Fold this protein.
Amino acid sequence: MHEGFGDRSRYSRAVRTALIAPIPLGRMARLGEVVAAALFLLSNEASFIAGVALCVDGGIRARRRVRCCHPELLTLFAL
């Protein structure tokens, strides 16, 4: 499981603004959202999930994958 930036108290206002800018949902993760994803993976409902990473990042990785169809963008994002 990969989480995004969550604990707001660690960062200054300027750093938080810079961290939030690329997040499609426009905010940092709430602790309960990260916990809910972890609990889901531990539940029977996730018993057939294997070999994948669940990204709890507000859509950052999904946005990059969409934009990285062009080879130059793949290089830019080092994906």
In short: Residues 31-42 form the longest helix (12 residues).
